[in-house]
Amino acid sequence: MEIKLNIFTLYIMNKKYIKIFSLVGCPYSINSEIIAKEHNINCEIKHVEQQDKNMVKKENNMNTFPQIFYIDKEEDVKFTIGGNDSFESLVNLYNDCMETKNSTDEYFYTNIIKNYAKQNYGSKKYYKVISNILLMINQ
């Protein structure tokens, strides 16, 4: 099967994506790569060799791997998702929303996502970013 993407789709895909700094040999990094592939998430994976890990830790101000970010070049946003656990948690949130997709109440989903943002990132103001990330799953 040949998949054809129009120019607009390619433009959007290059503007919004997940960026994973994956430490070579790290089981959590490998798991995050698998999650991204299994859920067809538009992402860029940067493999980090052991000798470069301290430099990447310092650049991204994070101490563990993987280091996962949501990038939106159009809105000039770089949002720290976190590590493997946080990434899995977002996919689980997506799955939970899909299980209740029969609900036509948009307010229902809005509250779920806002509460998730507050609980996991300290503020409901991240609702839009979390929503954009969820829209990237299984696309």
> What does the overall shape look like?
globular
Which sequence of SSEs, written as H and E, runs from N to C? HEHEHEEHHH
Largest sheet: 4 strands, mixed
Strand content is 15-25%
Instruction: Please state the structural category.
Output: alpha+beta
State the fourth-level CATH superfamily: Glutaredoxin
Helix content: 40-55%
Runs in which pLDDT lies below 50 for 5 or more consecutive residues are 1-12
Number of domains: 1
Tell me the CATH architecture: 3-Layer(aba) Sandwich
Helix and strand layout, with pairings?
Blueprint: H1 7-15, E1 16-23, H2 27-38, E2 43-48, H3 53-60, E3 67-72, E4 77-82, H4 84-99, H5 106-121, H6 127-136
Parallel strand pairs: 1-2
Antiparallel strand pairs: 1-3, 3-4
Structure report:
The chain has 139 residues and is an alpha+beta fold. It has a single domain (10-136), classed as Glutaredoxin, CATH 3.40.30. It is 51% helix and 19% strand. It has helices at 7-15, 27-38, 53-60, 84-99, 106-121, 127-136; strands at residues 16-23, 43-48, 67-72, 77-82. A four-stranded mixed beta sheet has the order 2-1-3-4, with helices on both faces. A hairpin with a 4-residue loop joins strand 3 (67-72) and strand 4 (77-82). Helix 2 runs parallel beside helix 4 (84-99). It is globular and about 50 Å long.
